[in-house]
Amino acid sequence: VLQFTTTAAADDLTCACGIQWCGQTCRDFQRFEHALLCCGDPKNKNVVASRRFRDHAMETGSTPFLLAAQAIARVLGSVKRDSEKLGESADWKDEDLFWWREYSHPLYWELGSSPKEPEQLEKKATCEASHHLLLESFRASIGDMTTKVCGDDSSFWTHILDIICTLEKFAEILGMLQCN
Fold it and tell me: How far is Cα of residue 175 from the mean position of the Cα atoms in its chain?
């Protein structure tokens, strides 16, 4: 039987940024990850930080920065789902979280230049600036969501961000994207 979605339900599947989910299951599965980088709802304080990150990535012409941010958001989403399902017994292995490490690749700024060359230093500085803005966006988003979505467990998420969203891991993903 073919069923159509009512306008109210369709509106519920659309974010202020314009993204639309195909259904509630997909929306619920991706809501946390999406909220980490969403630039749409100006009422949310994290939007300013998310827009700064997005704008910086666009100004530098670096779509891979946006993709790397989405990859890290996916990992954070997996941690959230696992911790909700398993509680304190949730345990993550590096190979489960940092899937990109199975591919051999240099750090982003090491691609195409020798150490200490101006090009490498410039790439590293751009990567550091992007990482700083990404971390600021994630912290603002998680701070905004901890009581709404995650429960009041901001210290857990601060610890998780310190492990997952490091400059090195960001540069590893960017290096992988540039090599593949």
Answer: 16
- The string of pLDDT tens digits covering residues 2-38 is 454 544 455 688 888 888 889 988 888 888 888 888 8
Q: How many CB atoms lie within 10 A of CB 102?
A: 8
Give me the phi and psi of 22, to 5 degrees please. -75, -20
Strands (E), 81-159: none
Residues 144 and 46 sit within 8 Å (Cβ to Cβ)? yes
Cα–Cα dist 39/8, whole Å: 23
Neighbours of 166 (CB within 10 A): 14
Q: pTM (2 decimals)?
A: 0.82
Distance from C-alpha of 50 to C-alpha of 153, rounded to nearest angstrom: 22
Q: How far is residue 156's CA from residue 145's CA, in Å, rounded to a whole number? A: 13
